[in-house]
């Protein structure tokens, strides 16, 4: 039954989920904007963040809300290491640069999935007794799940922080400058590799934050990243490659479209709406909504 | 130079012919069913990757959604046979034609897109196809289709007792895909495609009909991949949406060409000959534990090869003279 109430209800939860999608995707957008590289292991970054949250909870009883900064810091280091060990060499490729980037990060994704299966087993895990898990709050007659609500607030805060960071700090300016012209930046004494490594760290930290929130209400298993990675790519492309805040808008659109599709079509087809909207947008605007390149 | 070129072309043809003859003789000495199975898969992936390479390698339109055409081929054949009793040979042809038409219909809006926007469009279109098939009750939904066994015959293209007929068909398919690529390399289309890949704007201004040449590449590529899908359906006699149309399969199809050498004549074959046996062996010998060691080995290999040899494994075979000449020019 489609009543005004159910429509508002699902749009509201769609909006919350959309803000989370934006948070998952923003790291991807940041890295792409910085150096034109699409990280095909982005979903696996999310996966290890969720496992990190799970183990911090299981072994040390740290609630996901408290461990989120810790997980983000861990992912920061991980992202920087991935840049220094793999991506740094991939961008140097003299031939087929695009292919090398796609397949070196895709290979990394496979390795990470294999390692997760090896060390954590393919079992599904979940965090059952966190502070927010399973709780809902009623605002004006609309029921909102608390984990998603907090996730949405974290997402808004993260985007606001990122905006401030990029536009108001020295490192943010270095990031922007390197993005514009990596060669010229080297001439004024900025180490390109260091900026890129920090960019990868920052991108990974943001998806780490998203992973910590996701771990509260989603199952954790080695392939969990794959289902969110595609949504993240679509989110970034919808917003337009090169635009960090396009990811924010893209995430909200994806969340709302997904919720609307689920109202009309069977739930198993809810992603079809997202994909159709992506195609529609790029057929009209081949560079996404806010794409600059 | 022209003479040299003609000589090289002829030599490629002779080498391919010799390799095909040797491959055809192998089953006379190798009777092990497991090994024969791996050989069938290797040849199938060589054919698929060679076909993928036409659109993505030569024409430069990187598709990570070719599983759509593979699945269409497999499903067309399987549905026509199980629901209407149509022989797989007609199903194969129908699947190929349908896929080629769909590739052109999709290409019409998609070929305006560039770079990552195009790649993501190919992924989501294949994903939409997958979701639709998974929810299509008549076509078996997520469970897929079991192709009933009606006895061994070439007419029905079913063989339960021996893998050999499949082996020879896969060999023929790989030869056809190779030969089509070889022939196209030195045709008007081949030159157009490479021009489109290098710089579409410059190609357009020099009179290459960029859009039509992309459409041509898509149609040829999709047709051959769909025939591969039809073959696969007969070979395994059971298909389900995820295994023939999933994103994973699109990547598996691209990998041999990428690792062997994208946009090259021998790359897909070389990549398949090394990658597929290795995948199957790691899966059977260390993957049996179900703990992901096969994934670790496989993924590490992909990272290392793509970083160390950006031109692919074929670059190992490039004659030293080539390197020397290049160094001298610089």
Write a brief caption for the model:
By secondary structure, chain A is mainly α.
Provide an overview of this structure.
The complex is a heterodimer of chains A (293) and B (330). Chain A is mainly alpha-helical and 293 residues long. Helices cover 75% and strands 3% of the residues of chain A. Chain A has one domain (4-284): ABC transporter involved in vitamin B12 uptake, BtuC (Orthogonal Bundle), CATH 1.10.3470. Chain A is built from eleven helices and two strands; from the N terminus they run H-H-H-H-E-E-H-H-H-H-H-H-H. In chain A, strands 1-2 form a two-stranded antiparallel ribbon. In chain A, a hairpin with a 2-residue loop joins strand 1 (136-139) and strand 2 (142-145). Chain A is globular, with a radius of gyration of 19 Å. The termini of chain A are far apart. Chain B is mainly alpha-helical and 330 residues long. Chain B has one domain (9-329): ABC transporter involved in vitamin B12 uptake, BtuC, CATH 1.10.3470. Helix content of chain B is 74%, strand content 1%. Residues 321-330 of chain B have low confidence and may be disordered. Classes of the chains: A mainly alpha (293), B mainly alpha (330). The interface between A and B is large, with 52 and 45 residues.
